[in-house]
């Protein structure tokens, strides 16, 4: 059961952008949350050019300069969209083919309370890759990550507000911090709070045991929310049966959620893999969610 009265404070937001449509779709959430929390925004683009090591040195230098110049022009556009908010906007070179060391350095230097990233979920030297780099970020990050995945439509929730927050939990330890963020974001936005647990497998048709199991789950879901929280929201506990990832996505669509919150396994030294089932849930939800997904690890 979560501790009553916890309110998440976000003083800094690290916004990772590759200047793509999903990154653009993420920006309204950055702006809205920065205003809500009075947060400073660090906008960062990591340059990862794929150039042959044995290429012409002069041509390589010119290419690198051109790539950086283009990135700086794009970052100026981001900078203008953050006007009115305390922020900075930087372009930095990645290390070899790895984005994480540069992101980790930014986390250590700025100490953000939240990371926001938009991703295509497809291969490309300038893209943060869903299932590889993006997963590494939310598995290794010490702070929650809000991901705008490839299935989030352009213009979705363009005001950056959340009206229905779906918190999916398996009651594991990694869900504790995620529950706190779900509660805080729902309260900040005066949003509906949907509490979901998926029982992995088909619903049983006969006998008392399945009904008792579902009743116990409902009781645990109710206990997530402290009594005083009902002054501002009426939590909606939901129990579903089936494939966890599919049921989380279905519940989000059917109940009009515009934010999914998940607890995930990970560590600062994560290299993968986690358990196949847990990875499949987090990966599939982020990859196919019609709305942003906030992931937090214990």
Task: Write out key terms for the chains shown.
alpha/beta; 39% helix; Rossmann fold; 2 domains; single chain; 8 helices; disordered N terminus; ten-stranded mixed sheet; 298 residues; 10 strands; 20% strand
The proportion of residues forming helix, as a percent range, comes to 25-40%
Question: Could you give a short account of the major beta sheet?
Answer: 10 strands, mixed
Mind telling me the C-alpha Rg? Answer: 20 Å
Name of the top-level CATH class of the largest domain: Alpha Beta
Content of β-strand: 15-25%
Shape: globular
> If you average the pLDDT, what whole number results?
82
Q: Which assembly state applies to the chains in this document?
A: single chain
In order across it, which strands form the biggest sheet? 3-2-1-4-5-10-9-6-7-8
Count of structural domains: 2
CATH superfamily grouping of the largest domain: HUPs
The third-level CATH topology of the largest domain is Rossmann fold
Order of helices and strands: EHEHEHEHEEHEHEHEHE
Unreliable stretches: 1-5, 123-127
> How many helix segments?
8
Total E-strand runs: 10
């Amino acid at each position: 059961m979560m501790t009553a009265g916890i309110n998440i404070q976000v003083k800094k937001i690290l916004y990772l952008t590759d200047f793509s449509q999903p990154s653009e779709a993420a920006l309204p959430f950055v702006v809205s949350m920065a205003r809500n929390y009075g947060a400073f925004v660090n906008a960062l683009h990591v340059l990862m050019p794929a150039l042959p090591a044995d290429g012409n040195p002069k041509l390589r230098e010119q290419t690198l300069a051109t790539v950086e110049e283009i990135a700086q022009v794009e970052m100026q556009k981001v900078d203008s969209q953050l006007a009115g908010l305390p922020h900075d906007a930087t372009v930095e070179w990645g290390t070899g083919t790895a984005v994480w060391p540069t992101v980790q350095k930014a986390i250590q230097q700025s100490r953000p309370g939240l990371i926001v990233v938009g991703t295509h979920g497809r291969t490309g030297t300038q893209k943060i890759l869903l299932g590889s780099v993006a997963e590494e970020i939310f598995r290794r990050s010490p702070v929650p990550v809000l991901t705008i995945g490839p299935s989030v439509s352009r213009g979705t929730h363009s005001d950056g507000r959340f009206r229905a927050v779906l918190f999916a939990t398996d009651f594991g330890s990694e869900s504790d911090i995620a529950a706190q963020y779900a509660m805080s974001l729902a309260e900040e936005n005066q949003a509906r709070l949907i509490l979901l647990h998926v029982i992995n497998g088909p619903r049983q048709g006969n006998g008392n045991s399945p009904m008792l199991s579902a009743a116990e789950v409902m009781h645990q879901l109710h206990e997530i929310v402290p009594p005083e929280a009902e002054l501002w929201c009426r939590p909606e506990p939901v129990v579903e049966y089936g494939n966890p990832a599919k049921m989380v996505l279905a519940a989000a669509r059917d109940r009009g959620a515009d934010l999914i919150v998940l607890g995930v396994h990970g560590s600062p030294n994560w290299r993968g893999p986690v358990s196949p089932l847990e990875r499949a849930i987090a990966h599939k939800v982020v990859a196919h969610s019609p709305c942003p997904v906030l992931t937090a690890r214990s």
